[in-house]
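Sequence in, structure out. Go.
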Amino acid sequence: MMRADITAVTIRRAGVDDAGIVRGLIVALAVHQNQGEAVTVSVTDLERMLARPEIAYLIAEHRGQAIGYVSWLERTSFWSGEEYFALDDLFVADAERGHGIGERLMHAVADVAKGKVIRWEVAEANVAAQRFYERIGARLVAKQICRWQPR
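Output:
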């Protein structure tokens, strides 16, 4: 695949009809992280999610081809009462990295957030992502992630 010219990349909000594209991008991210088998969400699941106003995906496209995305949920802090954006994923296809697409996606989220805090997690081992986030001005805060799936 030819690398995208950043000026030719468009960013748009995904709609219900984009569920298949979104699923493909989610799978691409999972494969990139050697977790392809972990994706169990269906196109139907994503159609249902994309219909909810508090869930959003922005898709980066070049010549009609999806090359990246960012997703988030709108939340409210119980401590402050303030609304914030809980970023779920940021992904740019391997061949398209280094062209500023991830930064454009993050700035597009910031435009939608209109001054609200944007929070997310990054794996401790993902040093490249941490450097990227620090470069765009994010502050990294150490925290442990807990998971519990009661039976």
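Check: The first helix runs from residue 19 to 32. The domain at 6-121 is CATH 3.40.630.30 (Aminopeptidase).
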